[in-house]
Amino acid sequence: MMSDSISDADYVQKLQSGQTNAFEALIRRHEKTIFNLVYRMLGDYDEAAETSQEVFLSAYRAIGTFRGDANFSTWLYRIALNHASTRRKSLNLRHQRNVSIDNTEPMRDPQPGPAESLEKKEIRDTVQRALSTLSEDDAAVILLRDLQDIPYDEVALVLDVPVGTVKSRLHRARQALKSELASYFYAGRKKAV
């Protein structure tokens, strides 16, 4: 049973001393966040599920090398981005895929109408396609900062770059995403006028 009063560092220490059940607590604590990050990077539910399992397996195998210089979550994000990046390259080599960026949890909207649901799905699909066109660095910085709401300093640790580089990459990535989405949103406004 996981306790919120026990820190990640304490669980890691228990795991490193041979208490393997501590890893289950770490998985439960981070599985949704890691899955969402990987899912948004890949855009495919099944690929994200498989990749997330690989992330935790890699973390388990490498837990002895974790020194605690950064937060466990930062270390885990780095592993997740590496796995997602590798899988993304593999998928791009096989074929281009554009899949919805639907949330992994059901929408909590009180009975949205069919038109509203369809419009939301279309927007999510369009954003996912645009996100898929970005470079891995640009997609990673947007996913970590804007979609996962990770602080700049932690994003810098995950990406192993200075905070200033994170900010400049984020600006560039937002501009690229805006450019990719401009025709879609402009076309919608043009029709309404």
Written overview of the protein:
With 193 residues, the chain is mostly helical. It has two domains: 1-97, Rna Polymerase Sigma Factor, Chain: A (Orthogonal Bundle), CATH 1.10.1740.10; 111-193, Winged helix-like DNA-binding domain superfamily/Winged helix DNA-binding domain (Arc Repressor Mutant, subunit A, Orthogonal Bundle), CATH 1.10.10. Helices cover 74% and strands 0% of the residues. The chain is built from eight helices and no strands. The chain has helices at 8-16, 21-42, 45-62, 72-94, 114-133, 136-147, 152-159, 163-192. It is globular and about 60 Å long.
Number of helices: 8
CATH architecture classification of the largest domain:
Orthogonal Bundle
Main beta sheet strand tally, sense and closure: none
Q: What ranges have pLDDT less than 50 throughout 5 or more consecutive residues?
A: 95-100
Between the first and last Cα atoms, what is the distance in angstroms?
57 Å
User: What's the CATH C level of the largest domain?
Assistant: Mainly Alpha
* Mean pLDDT, all residues: 84
Helix fraction by DSSP (H/I, runs of at least 4): over 70%
